[in-house]
Amino acid sequence: MSILAVHEADLATLSARGRARRLIPRAGVDLSSNDYLGLATAPVLRAAVAGALGRGVPVGSGGSRLLRGNHPEHEALEAEAAAFFGSEAALYLSSGYAANAALFATLPQTGDLIVHDALIHASAHEGMRIGRATCRPAAHNDVDAFATVIANWRAEGGTGRVWIAVESLYSMDGDRAPLADLAALADRHDAFLLIDEAHATGVYGRDGRGLAEGLDGRDYVIVLRTCGKALGCEGALLCGPRVVRDFLVNRARAFIFSTAPSPLMAAAVRAALRLLVTEPERRTRLATLIAAAGNALAPYGAAVTGSQILPLILGDDFRTMQVAARLQAAGFDVRGIRPPTVPAGTSRLRLSITNNVTETDLAALADVMPAALA
User: Fold this and answer.
1) What pLDDT was estimated at residue 26?
2) pLDDT tens, 286-341?
3) H or E element, residue 364
4) CATH topology of domain 280-373
5) Which H helix or E strand runs over 29?
6) Is 196 a catalytic site residue?
7) Nearest residue to 72 via CA among 84, 85, 96, 56
8) Cα(234)–Cα(268) distance, rounded to whole angstroms?
9) How far is CA 322 from CA 198, 207, 335, in A?
10) Structural contact between residues 177 and 167, judged by C-beta atoms closer than 8 angstroms
């Protein structure tokens, strides 16, 4: 038997179920990226990186932030981000996945309860898996369900702190969390509210401050804002009380033992935050495209969510990938999403609307949908 037999068998099982993944190059009209504002190729960001290089900012950090890897560009970004979003402090990490893993694994303590939305991101689950708190799901976007989980845990003798964890805009469904009601629930239970703004940062709120705008600055609110989606860069910012930042610096293994992000990327994120203010027309154009996409694609089953994410649920894994392949062959970069990323029986096309497309592109996509779905 091959030393790799177990792994080969697992891959064969995935293939048989229509769930094997493979890397394919980007090609065609962008309907799959998270570059919502089209900033990944923005000249302003390129100029920011070039300017930083000209000032002598290194490409690599050279070590963890606690060793020699801490650069003035990191600290400048954190100061600007905290001021921009209205939080007491911010901490810059290498990715949203790393930030969520660090957050959930580090802050909730033994005896605490994390009650999380049933559809929260895999990175939060990773943090909970290696953390110390009790973790229980609540029905998606159901505030009463969150309250019931908390009440049941208390009735069972739970005495620790409660942590309520949600995404503000869900990456696979495109719907929004009832943040005001969840904040009120957190108030009533003296709980923390953890908000993942990955898909809302830059797109919603005043000057792109996100759907959690107005909640920053409260001592029980911690917000994750990724930089690799609408901001067009890389990394993630955890925004919240200064004591939370200091605790993560001292206790979060994903921060302590990771090489710091490139200082050049920190410079680029600073430029992106400023651009949110100086180029509001990017959000205006995106809103127009979102409306056009809804009108064009709703007749073919795409959910009109009011956001830049329009899921078209097909159910069957094989059919989903077949339809995606047909659309790719027609020149549209549409990707199929299957379990375990989404619940079983809900395989879908995730149609992502960005400023990298035009209304003409969306009309052309609608024209080929009947043949792709046949």
Assistant:
1) 87
2) 999 999 999 999 999 999 999 999 999 999 999 999 999 999 999 999 999 999 99
3) helix 359-373
4) Aspartate Aminotransferase, domain 1 (3.90.1150)
5) strand 29-30
6) yes
7) 56
8) 9
9) 29, 40, 10
10) yes
Which residues are CB-neighbours of 138 under 8 A, at least 6 positions away?
A: 115, 116, 117, 118, 145, 146, 148, 149
Give me the residue spans of the domains in the chain: 43-277, 280-373
Active site residue 78: no
Out of 167, 213, 333, 361, which one is annotated catalytic? 167
- Residues 254-282 pLDDT 10s: 999 999 999 999 999 999 999 999 999 99
Q: Which residues, listed in sequence order, are joined to residue 114 by a DSSP beta bridge? A: 135, 163
Q: How does pLDDT run across 130-150, given as a tens digit for each residue?
A: 999 999 999 999 999 999 999
CATH number (3.90.1700.10, 3.40.640.10, 3.90.550.10, 3.20.20.150) of 43-277 reads 3.40.640.10
Strands 309-315 and 335-337: unpaired
Taking the model in full, what pTM does it have?
0.94
pLDDT for position 172: 96
Which residue stretches of the chain have pLDDT < 70? none
The answer to whether residue 229 is catalytic is: yes
Predicted confidence at residue 257, as pLDDT, reads 96
Half-sphere exposure of 221 (CA within 13 A, CB side): 25
Which amino acid belongs to residue 251?
R
* From 229, 317, 333, 352, active-site residue: 229
| Annotation says 295 is catalytic | no
167 catalytic residue (yes or no): yes
- How do beta strands 162-167 and 236-240 pair? unpaired
Q: Which residue has the tokens 């509210």?
A: 193
